[in-house]
Specification:
Blueprint (H helix, E strand, L loop, with lengths): L7 H11 L11 E2 L2 H10 L6 E6 L5 H9 L2 E5 L6 H7 L6 E4 L8 H8 L5 E7 L5 H10 L6 E7 H7 L10 H9 E9 L4 E2 L6 E8 L10 H11 L7 H8 L7 H10 L13 H14 L6
């Protein structure tokens, strides 16, 4: 068994050897607790038939745990300075491919076809850079990638939003987008003390397992998400006021928006955070029929 990368001492040695300094702009916080890495790997339920996509491998702490438990790991790393370190720390493993690219700009579908040929069971497992958590999650879900699920560590506050229920202050358009595609749960809280350098906030690990089909059926998915985002534009406003001010051509169509809310059996004085995903689906379908040019 190889010596784990993620012990505080070994991490320190590696960083010292390469004179590596953390870039705040890249949200670099490296985990230095092998126990937590083992648990993240277990939550992902990997087998020797699983292909894993990792985002932001850092110095390879989580990567090596994933490599030990899966068939192949493909990791996207944006920071050029980490490439020689990863080549060194992960040299004992022959089932890891590092791609020097920003995941947000990558054609992930192409990478999956090329790197995971013949692999049906694909998971994303990562300690996500905090500053781009939401765009990464939304990209992975909206691009209809053939993923079984996603297990990621992120800020606890974002994790709370991801799995939030209607009527809570955490519930918003992110909760709806994630729960539309997946079954979301927070599986573990991670204290800030297990990172180098320590972030300012606690973290959480969430598990998102893809649904066979979205939780609700809508006539136009992009329009549905546009309506949910508009409904939360200003949390203190009623849904009628938010839709009127946040949608293009909303002001001149206020009466039609009002009648659409009534057709969908939604009281116009309610706030967006009180509506269930099913109510948003009904509303977006009615609005689509009543105001086909609302999103033009």
């Amino acid at each position: 068994m190889h010596k784990d990368i993620a012990t505080p001492l070994r991490t320190k040695e590696i960083l010292h050897k390469y004179g590596f300094s953390f870039k705040k702009s890249l949200g670099q916080n490296f985990l230095v607790d092998t126990n937590i890495l083992r648990k993240i790997t277990e939550f992902a339920d990997l087998t020797k038939e699983t292909g894993v996509i990792e985002i932001g491998p850092g110095i390879g702490a989580l990567t090596e745990h994933l490599a030990r438990s899966s068939k192949k790991v493909v990791a996207f790393e944006i920071d050029q300075r980490l490439l020689p370190i990863l080549e060194d720390t992960l040299s004992p493993y022959d089932n890891i491919q590092i791609i020097h690219q920003d995941i947000l700009k990558a054609n992930v579908q192409d990478v999956i076809e090329k790197e995971f040929s013949g692999i049906k069971d694909i998971m994303v497992v990562a300690n996500l850079p905090y500053y781009v958590t939401t765009p990464i999650l939304l990209k992975l879900l909206t691009e209809q990638l053939p993923l079984k699920g996603i297990v990621v560590m992120l800020q606890k506050e974002v994790a709370d939003r991801v799995s939030a229920n209607p009527g809570t202050k955490e519930y918003g358009s992110l909760s709806i987008a994630i729960q539309y595609y997946t079954k979301a749960e927070t599986v573990m809280i991670v204290p800030k003390t297990v990172f180098n350098p320590q972030p300012n906030v606690d973290s959480a690990v969430i598990r998102l397992m893809k649904r066979e089909k979205p939780i609700v059926e809508v006539e136009d998915e992009a329009f549905f998400f546009q309506i949910t985002r508009a409904s939360f534009a200003q949390r203190r406003k009623t849904i009628l006021n938010n839709l009127t001010s946040a949608l293009p051509n909303g002001k001149e169509n206020k009466d039609l928006i009002l009648s659409s809310l009534e057709k969908a059996n939604i009281d116009p004085s309610r706030r967006g955070e009180t509506l269930s995903i099913q109510e948003f689906a009904a509303l977006s379908d009615v609005l689509l029929r009543t105001l086909p040019n609302l999103n033009k």
